[in-house]
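Field: sequence (string)
Field: structure_tokens (string)

Example rows 1 and 2, in order.
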Amino acid sequence: MRLLTTTMLVALTATGAFADDSWKQDYQVVKFGILSGENEKDRIASYTPFEAYLERELGVDVEIFTAGNYDGVIQAIAADQIEFAFFGSSSYAAAYTETNGGVKPLVSRLQNDGSTGYYSIIVTRCDSRLTDLAALEGKVLAFADPDSTSGYAVPYFNLSKLVDPKTYFEAIPFSGSHEAGVQAVVNGTFDAAATYQTNETSGIPQRMVTKGMIAEGEICPIWQSPEITSGPLAARTNLPEGLIDAMKTAVMEIPMKDPEAFKAMSGGADSTQKGWIEVDHERYQWIVDMRDWLKKERRKTG
């Protein structure tokens, strides 16, 4: 009887393992999207080790998907062209709305200090004498992308409580990406730009200094938002549960299994991320509501 029971357990375990892997028949290539926070070359370089790690862990081919703007990734997951994507909070909310709830968050970032959020900041040249929002009246403030959380939604939402951005600033263009906006401030194209940082040592400006794109001391933050919930790795809800579970497990385990790949994808030498936490949609509902408010504001002036 004991032998029979053991044999049955082994058979059931094998059957379960096979069922969990059955998704591989239909998903021999798994694609994940990444947003345009950095230039495309650096984005791909940062995630290539992660791509290789996933191929080892999942046992299928994995491909990185990039686009020139956030909407390209949102539309790709909405059209079932990619299976997963790393989103900011606002771009996740946009994808959730675009797909009528057809995406769900899996994990988000956990920092060394235990925090799970970051901040939108407005930066200027340190030598510009533009040291607060009052000094920016009549100046050009660049936002990153219409679907960027820290580069547009949060700063616009918060600034609107104080002033009317459309009339307070000379212009409020989109730069296309965080790095492009910061670089344009350094070059004098914009007076200020919205971007993000996790803390004083980790963020887009700090990363650009490390990469040699700008000099230390060229860019200074003059405004900071309330804390923003870090964006998630999200999956299409129409994927097999086995694939979703396998991806979540692989991402959660990468800090232990491949520290170098984890370091590269989380910011390199400037990274303050130590791991991941599991998240659900409720964590981001306020972002969905904020985007709805922004949409209504645009309709008023449209």
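Row 2 begins here:
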Amino acid sequence: MTRPFKVSICLPTCNRPELIVQCIDSCLAQTHANIEIVIGDDSKDDRTQRLMAAQYQHDPRIRYVKNEPSLGQARNVASLFARASGDKILLIHDDDYLAEDGVERLVSLWDSHPGLDVAFADQYEVDHAGHVDGAVSAKLNADFHRTKSTEGLQKVPGRTGLIQMFPNNGWLANAELVKRVSYKEQYGTCCDFVFGVELCLAAKQIYYLNEYVSYYRKTDVSISASTRGSTNAAPVSAYAFVSSLTLERQVEPARTVALRRLVPIVVSVYAKNAAPFKALRIAFRHLSAYNYGLNARLYYHLMLISRSMLSSRAGRQPDAPTTRSAREESRTETVL
């Protein structure tokens, strides 16, 4: 029987009152009844504040705060963790939402694994209107190593965060551990990834459940969109963070997996931002990310670097690539 743990659902929001209702309603509909919903509103206007007063003011399960002034992504989430009073913490972003029994299925894992620190499961991918695409959802989870063959307790917990198996939200973890790790402002738009890595490195037991418990909404507007393609982009910060980690021997191979994903993105970003020598150093320091020269992407990046060098000598910024390869490149540069 599922233990009566109190679960604090932490919900950061910013300027999305048209989406947050579905998120809040999915939290209130949970079959696991012992919950609180802790909301931190970083919006620049009062639309969400007025919505909360009109629809949810009298629900004792909701603890809403309007941040004045705004805290920013990392400090907002960290403040939610600090305010949480539950035994377990679950994070869900304002444009995403939970399956009705999502919390219950995650909490139930503590029945069979009392020493568990962290549990997570699959995410559906939905469009802005909330339509689920089954095939796209399956690919999303497979791309992040969430498949039936990997279900269960993770043999090397620290590996889970580094290889990005751990999702950005919809997870459940012991409150004490979450509060201790928390979000850190200095990592900017990379704070989600850094938190996931540090949480998994600190955890002793992590369980992956091969079932859908949450819905991840794919939108064109996100916190990271304003920095995408710049040297402030999340993958650039993630690369620096992963490169600087001191890891135990059993976790070290996961760093290589992480860098294979990050290095090509970072090289491309620097080449397109007039930093060709930095791009070249990173590319040749991590040739394994390009399958030691057997990956055509390396030669495309060398072309970008060459163009950047020539443009720098001419005293101008490189023009945006217009080749078909460049268009393909832009589609592969997913933000963490």
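free_text_note (row 2): Residues 7-223 form a domain with the Spore Coat Polysaccharide Biosynthesis Protein SpsA; Chain A fold (CATH 3.90.550.10).
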